[in-house]
Each structure stands twice: as C-alpha cells, then as structure tokens.
Recover the amino acids of this structure.
C-alpha cells in the first residue's frame, strides 16, 4: 500500500531520515521500532505530509503522494495520530468525533441560514456514527465527558475513534502506548486488531513496548540512523545481531558476552 523509496529528510547537516526504503503491505499491521533518534517519527511526518522531504519518493497504492499536504492525504484515506493526543478539550468526546468529517453543510453561512433541515439530518447521521464508534471502542460511557478531562489512554482511544469517522485506508500510530496503563493499552490493542480484521484497516505502528508490538505486528521494521536496518517477525527481530547492537551498543553487547 505504501512504498518509500530512498527517502531523505535533512535538517541542516543532520540527516534524520537518510535513504530509507521500505514497504507497508495492504492489510498489515506493520511495526516500526528502533532506538531513540532512529528517524521513526520524522519518517511518519514526511509520509503524512507534516514535513516536506529533502529527496526521495512516497507512493500509496501506486500513486505518487510525495510532499502532499495532510488535508489532501486525509481525503485519500491516509491518517496519523500523534504521541501527544490532540483533542478539543472543551468539547465533549462525542462532539470531537462529529467534527472529523470534512465538507459538512453547516460549515457555510449560506447553508446555516437556508439549509437547516439538511444540516440537522447530517448532524443526526454523524451523531449516530459517533455513538457506534464509541460503543466499538468501549468508551460510550464517556460520550458527554469533556475531552480535556480524559486520561492519556482514553485520549488515545478518542484519536483512534477519529480515524473511524472517515474512510481511513491506512493509519499511522505514533507511540499509541505512551503514558497508557496496561488495562487501557490492552483495550487499544484489541481495537486495532478488530479494525484490521473486521474493517480492513492497514496500520503502521511506532512503539517502544515490544510486548505490544509482538501482540499486534507482523512484519516488524527496525530503523537505525535514518534508514531501515532489518525486517521480519518479532522473534526474528529479537534474535537479529544487528538489531541487538543498534539498541545496546557494541560495548554493552560485548560486555554481556564476556564471562564473569
């Protein structure tokens, strides 16, 4: 579904992404892991249009999407979440979901005056869909809670719910488990699996929790120094000497092998 070819993103002399080449298969839940500073989030930002690449190419289902802005990618079904959730804190959970779909009739002054019936029908349909999303995510009891009052894990579920309000094809999840307790993390993992299996969502997940990655992801791609280092199942990745060295460092790896 997504193909990244020789992608670069430089900040002055710093090469955050340095010739990354990888693919995300349609229908997969692909994990993206690597040590801090490996370029994972920068890669996400370039693919999702939040940053312009220095060079290289990104295609989605064979279409060149390199450098397209986020709103254009949104309409093509490419969405991303952030490590820190971005909710409208003063609005209810239900209202946050209802705001997601674009081109709503109520967005223009003319329609607000002369097409009130159409607006009411659209809002009723959006409200019904939002309720279905909240029930799917098992947070329907929070529908009237202000989003700013939610816990970190509940906010991550709300962000996942936003992707369900539109025709998402692929969703990039950036550290969805950060700051989330184990119970809610299990709820998030179950929701991702169900969206993948029941609704055909493709996911790419950045996460440091290897148990979470192991439960969800196949394949797992490892990045280091701005490029792909390895790819395989979670067991293959854990046994890969290059990956161990990238995470632990040569000195620590050799120290661990030295007899006491």
């Amino acid at each position: 579904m997504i193909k990244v070819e020789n992608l670069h993103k430089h900040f002055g002399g710093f090469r955050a992404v340095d010739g990354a080449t990888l693919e995300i298969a349609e229908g997969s839940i692909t994990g993206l892991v690597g040590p801090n500073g490996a370029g994972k989030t920068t890669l996400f930002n370039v693919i999702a249009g939040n940053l312009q690449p220095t060079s290289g190419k990104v295609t989605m289902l064979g279409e060149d999407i390199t450098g397209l802005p986020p709103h254009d990618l949104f309409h093509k079904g490419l969405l991303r979440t952030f490590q820190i959730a971005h909710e409208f804190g003063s609005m209810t959970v239900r209202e946050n979901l209802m705001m997601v779909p674009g081109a709503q009739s109520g967005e223009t002054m003319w329609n607000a005056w002369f097409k009130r019936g159409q607006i009411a029908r659209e809002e009723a349909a959006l409200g019904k869909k939002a309720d279905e999303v909240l029930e799917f995510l098992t947070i329907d009891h929070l529908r009237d809670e202000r989003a700013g009052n939610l816990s970190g894990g509940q906010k991550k579920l709300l962000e996942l719910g936003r992707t369900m309000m539109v025709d998402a094809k692929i969703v990039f999840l950036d550290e969805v488990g950060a700051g989330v307790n184990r119970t809610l993390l299990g709820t998030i993992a179950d929701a991702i699996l169900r969206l993948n299996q029941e609704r055909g969502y493709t996911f790419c997940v950045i996460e440091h929790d290897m148990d979470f990655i192991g439960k969800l992801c196949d394949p797992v791609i490892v990045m280091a120094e701005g490029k792909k280092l390895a790819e395989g199942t979670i067991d293959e990745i854990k046994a890969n000497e290059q990956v161990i060295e990238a995470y632990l460092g040569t000195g620590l790896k050799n120290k661990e092998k030295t007899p006491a």
Summary: The longest strand covers residues 14-24. Confidence is low (pLDDT under 50) at residues 250-260. Residues 88-149 form one domain. The beta strands are 2-11, 14-24, 29-33, 55-60, 63-64, 78-80, 170-174, 202-206, 220-224, 227-232.
